[in-house]
Amino acid sequence: MAYLQPDKEGKVYLPAIRTAKENGQKLVCLTAYDYPTARIVDEAGVDMILVGDSIGNVIHGYGNTIPVSLDEITSACIAVKRGTERAMVIADMPFGTYHINEDESVKNALRLMKYGGAEAVKLEGGRNRVELVQRLVDEEIPVVAHIGLTPQSVYKMGGYRVQGRTAEQAKRLIEDAKMLEDAGAFAIVLELVPREVAQMITDELSISTIGIGAGLGCDIQVLVLHDLVGMTFGRQPRFVRQYANVRDVMTDAIQNWARDVRSGAYPADDESYGLTAETLSELKGS
Ligand code: KIV
């Protein structure tokens, strides 16, 4: 699929992210997985849209991100790209798509860019991804790294827990961040990391940190849109501040519509189409 994306005034590319860091200007990033939410998020002025593998939890109900496929992210990315004019579109590389070897990883990242329309890719891991990040960047693929809690390691980690709580673990995270910066990543997601550690990494790096559950100090904040607007189920993590309850709004709308259908109040005459009196009498006479 080919894209005709005009270079709109103010469109967010890498230089805008760099300038924001230099000027101490905070940016915002949200997830989206389809055309209408991408339009809403973009028109609301969000700077970056992540087609996250959280699609596995939020949209597909898999329970975690492990089963998410390249096709699922590519398809979501195509829709998001169509709905986005200003924000940078970043696609997550799903589990298993950058683990076999570098050539295959490059091929998969290129697919996300060429067919999905992604303007950058994100992948999880620290020092173990340094060579891969270098290779992707060499191939003109902008890379966002992701350390701290890396949900694709859920089975290895045995759950979703704050990472970097001990001095030794924190030091390792700081080293990882530095190595990923040196490898060429233009930003690093810090997920579920103590705020002091996130602040140290943010101060240390010249590239942007993107925090989720990592405190106020990060350059950019990211949230899963569905958490922000109350469209997820179950207990939310501490860092989620819910700004709306779209789930309740939808439930009310659906129940009101069903009640009107059942009582005969929907559809009204002006919500359907009629015949002219002439056609009606002709029809009845025939
Ligand atoms: O998939 C996702 O939504 C993410 C964010 C939580 C950073 O990786």
Summarize the structure.
With 286 residues, the protein is α/β, with parallel strands linked by helices. Helix content is 42%, strand content 14%.
Q: Quick check: average pLDDT?
A: 96
Largest sheet, in brief, is:
8 strands, parallel, barrel
Number of β-strand runs: 8
Characterize the overall form.
elongated
DSSP strand content: 5-15%
Elements, N to C (H/E)? HEHEHHEHEHEHHEHEEHHH
Rg, Cα atoms, Å: 23 Å
Distinct small molecules bound, one entry per kind:
3-methyl-2-oxobutanoic acid
Structural class comes to: alpha/beta
The CATH homologous superfamily of the largest domain is termed: Phosphoenolpyruvate-binding domains
Helix proportion: 40-55%
Query: Helix count?
Result: 12
Uncertain segments of ≥5 residues (pLDDT<50)?
none
CATH topology of the largest domain: TIM Barrel
Please give the order of strands in the largest beta sheet.
Answer: 1-2-3-4-5-6-7-8
CATH class of the largest domain: Alpha Beta
Q: How many domain regions?
A: 2
**What's the end-to-end separation, in Å?**
53 Å
For the record, the CATH architecture of the largest domain stands as: Alpha-Beta Barrel
What do you see in this structure?
This protein is 42% helix and 14% strand. The chain is an alpha/beta fold. Strands 1-2-3-4-5-6-7-8 form an eight-stranded parallel β-barrel, surrounded by seven helices. Strand 1, helix 2 and strand 2 form a beta-alpha-beta unit. The protein has twelve helices and eight strands. It binds 3-methyl-2-oxobutanoic acid (KIV). 3-methyl-2-oxobutanoic acid binds next to strand 6. 3-methyl-2-oxobutanoic acid (KIV) binds next to strand 6.
